[in-house]
Amino acid sequence: MRVFLALVCVTVLTAWIHNADASELSITTIKEEPYTMSRGSQFEGYCIDLISELSKKLGFKYTIHLVKDNRYGAMDSSGNWNGMIGEIIRGDADLAVAPLTVTAVRERFVDMTTPFIQTGLSFIIRKSADSEDNPFSLLFPFSTEMWVGVLIAFLLTGLCMFLVGRISPTEWAEPETDDHNFTLLHSFWYITGALTLQGVGPHPKALSGRVVSAIWWIFAVLLLACYFANFNSVLNSKSKHISITSFEELANQDVIDYGTIENGSTMLFFKNSNNPVYRRIHQHMERKKSYVSTMQEGVRLTQEGNFAFIGEAVSLDLTVARYCKLTRAKELISMRSYSIAAPLGSPLVKNLTVAILQLSESGELTHLREKWWAISCVGSDEAHTSEALNPHDLRGLFLLLGLGLGIGLLLALLELLSRARNRAKDGKKSCCSVLTSELNRRFGSGAEGTEQENSDKNKV
């Protein structure tokens, strides 16, 4: 009797411990936007909200951890599973809640609920910049900021040429009798001729004017060289970029490379497919070794150009919503779905399936999709700026021009100061008064002074 009571107590205690442990589920997931993302020490995302809604309906507690090897789950040559599927099989987790694709191989080793997302395979490429449809394609080698910088440099140089022509006594010796060659209009005409590599006269005679002229010629030649070099690269990149809208077109070209995540379900689809087009795609990826380790790497390569990343459309749609210079092909193949994985024979699967169907019928899954797939398009105007030169790319050239203009103005002032000192010695006047008089004569107020001086002489 005592033995029987002891066995009953042990059985009850074991059942109580089992129920206590089962009340808090261990859930494994993988970090992927927008399904699971870090927010400080906590997680957020579509899958996190889905787990929360399911726990409210079924009344279970849970803890979430990231899969250790950052993999979804594939079986190696020795028959061992890695990733989230491996954790489920080994008992390290009770559920795997992630964008986990339902496959025949996985269904043999784990139980999976009804899908919470339906999707298919597609690919993303970088949008082509059609220069024929844009009448301003000649401006693409330089960014907007660069064109503004060139305009400012042009205006400052023209003004500097005008000031040097006025200040330098070698350029304009006698303001009362000599013509001023470098008027404001001629100054701008002169530097415009330099931009077209066609010089126009008259040319500067003073050292200061020649310094400004030489610096501007150097600036113009190097600027034109950079423009035409970048213009050539833009044309070449556009000629290499072709429009691809289907997997057959992708397989029939060799200009753009393409790949998918290594050892993922997408790679296995192309590997096991009997379709000749899909077989060629797999052979190309094997030959080129164009697989990527993560989706982020595939998106980065696609943004850099001449690469197409193949993946599941629901994830690619989010990428296109984030990066406007990318576009997704309309064709969908190999329709598939995302489900929650649990150990074989787990009683949770039936309850989770019913709860997911209820969330779908009530519109909660649609609400979560709209919440986490909201359009937050960035870089919509980057189609032509990625290859365009910016001011910081040629900052050394602009610094050289600014230094040359400053030296030119300084030399013009020194030339005028030297003349003022010589006249001050001859007339026994102060250098400052002579310099002030010279500046007044050269910048407009000297005409009235000259007329007043001549009238005083006539009176005498």
Description:
With 460 residues, the protein is α/β, with parallel strands linked by helices. It has 17 helices and twelve strands. The strands form four sheets. Strands 7, 8, 9, 10 and 11 form a five-stranded mixed sheet that branches. Helix 5 packs antiparallel against helix 7, helix 7 runs antiparallel to helix 15 and helix 9 crosses helix 10. The longest helix is centred in the middle third of the chain and has 34 residues. The chain is elongated. The N terminus and C terminus are likely disordered.
Bulk shape: elongated
pLDDT < 50 runs, ≥5 residues = 3-22, 379-386, 446-460
Number of helical regions: 17
Portion in beta strands: 5-15%
Average pLDDT over all residues: 81
Distance between the termini: 149 Å
Residues in helices, as a percent range: 40-55%
Helices and strands, in order, run as HEEEHEHEHEEHHHHEHHHEHEEEHHHHH
Helix-and-strand structural type: alpha/beta
The biggest sheet, with number of strands, parallel, antiparallel or mixed sense and barrel status, is: 5 strands, mixed
E-strand count = 12
Any idea what the radius of gyration is? Answer: 38 Å
